[in-house]
Amino acid sequence: MNILIFGASGNTGRELVKQALTNGHRVTAFIRTTGKLTISDEKLKIIEGNVKDYDTVKNAIHNQEAVLSTLGVSKQLNSDPLVIEGVKNIVKAMEILNTTRLIYLSFLAVGEGRNDAGFILKNIVSRIVKEEIEDHEEKERLISSSKLEYTIVKPPKLTNGIKKGVYRIGETIKAKSILPTMSRADVADFMLKQLTDTAFFRKAVRIMY
């Protein structure tokens, strides 16, 4: 499958790229700065650009079968209006080009999920990353009000742990610990499975161990 990954040079984005290539997909990686993604493969194309540039975004989406996003803020603990603008551009371009499948990485403590995210995520972390959560809420609104066949993926705190391949998924599942964590490898595994799984079309799904 031809897939485009926004945020491909981030920790989760790199894991997505590696696993997608291993799975045989033809990957276009959209990154802000050349050199931040050192993976080399004949099935990998790298585009350097800024998501705030609509034409660059639209050109990247052209001829893609699906789009995945792990876009995050440029500075942690801060709002990033440019990324919100970028998501607007992605949604607009996908609708115009009729590229309908979007898999977007959000966070468990966004929206209603906060109440089921465990004590620390609910009461401490959500306050620390308040502005990032508010950004995610706006981006989720943009996506859910679109015509796209989206899936919003909502994991807890991410780690660089190993890929287990076993995890819980569901729209209403709850944390089993006061600070649930999940490896980026397993999040990437789940996101890539959504390329062919229709169970969570136009839904937000929680993913936890």
Structure in words:
The protein is of the alpha/beta class and 209 residues long. The chain has helices spanning 11-22, 54-61, 81-97, 119-128, 130-144, 184-193; strands at 2-6, 26-31, 44-48, 66-69, 101-105, 149-154, 157-159, 168-170, 181-183, 203-208. The strands form two sheets. Strands 3-2-1-4-5-6-10-8 form an eight-stranded mixed beta sheet, with helices on both faces. α1 links the parallel β1 and β2. α2 (54-61) crosses α3 and α3 packs parallel to α5.
What descriptors fit this protein?
about 210 residues, 6 helices, alpha/beta, eight-stranded mixed sheet, Rossmann fold, globular, about 35% helix, 10 strands, two-stranded parallel ribbon
User: What is the number of independent domains?
Assistant: 1
User: If helices are DSSP runs of H or I spanning 4 or more residues, what is the number of helices?
Assistant: 6
Name the CATH superfamily classification.
NAD(P)-binding Rossmann-like Domain
CATH fold-level topology: Rossmann fold
**Uncertain segments:** none
Q: What is the overall shape?
A: globular
Helix content: 25-40%
Helix and strand topology:
Layout: E1 2-6, H1 11-22, E2 26-31, E3 44-48, H2 54-61, E4 66-69, H3 81-97, E5 101-105, H4 119-128, H5 130-144, E6 149-154, E7 157-159, E8 168-170, E9 181-183, H6 184-193, E10 203-208
Parallel strand pairs: 1-2, 1-4, 2-3, 4-5, 5-6, 6-10, 7-9
Antiparallel strand pairs: 8-10
